[in-house]
Design goal:
Elements (H helix, E strand, L loop, with lengths): L3 H13 L3 H6 L1 E9 L7 E4 L1 H15 E11 L4 E12 L5 E13 L2 E9 L2 H10 L1
Parallel strand pairs: 1-6
Antiparallel strand pairs: 1-2, 3-4, 4-5, 5-6
């Protein structure tokens, strides 16, 4: 079975390749994903489909997302991820690079919980509204 770090690296690899079905296949059917409430697509999402509709389709429709850096910290059931994501507006072409920290909980080779912490939600919302 893959380690927690290997599962999380696979998640970010799928995101980087825009392989949404591959990404969702790494999620447990009962996954809980917590995005900051202050974001336009913020909230708590239960299950891969809710996350796909509530975040991936909304954010992916507005921006191309590129993973610039991803580092997994720890080796237990819950690991931290430090990543830099680049958002490029599909309409204006403008970009924003945002550092993130995420906590991923893994069980039986699947992600069961993700808590997302962008470094500057105010800046992310401002970029969202301008694009």
């Amino acid at each position: 079975m893959k380690s927690s770090a290997e599962v999380v690296y696979a998640v970010f690899d799928a995101l980087a390749r825009e392989d949404m079905s591959g990404l969702l296949s790494l999620f447990d059917e009962n996954i809980v994903i917590v995005e900051p409430e202050s974001l336009p697509c913020g909230g708590t999402f239960h299950g891969p489909e809710a996350f796909r509709k509530g975040v991936l389709m909304v954010m992916g429709g507005k921006f191309r997302i590129r993973v610039l850096r991803c580092r997994v910290i720890g080796d237990g059931d819950t690991v931290a991820v430090s990543a830099d994501l680049e958002f490029t507006s599909r309409t204006s072409g403008r970009t924003l690079i945002m550092p993130y920290v995420e906590l991923h909980t893994i069980a039986d080779g699947k992600v069961t919980r993700v808590e997302v912490f962008p470094q500057d939600t105010h800046r992310l919302v401002e970029f969202w509204n301008q694009n």
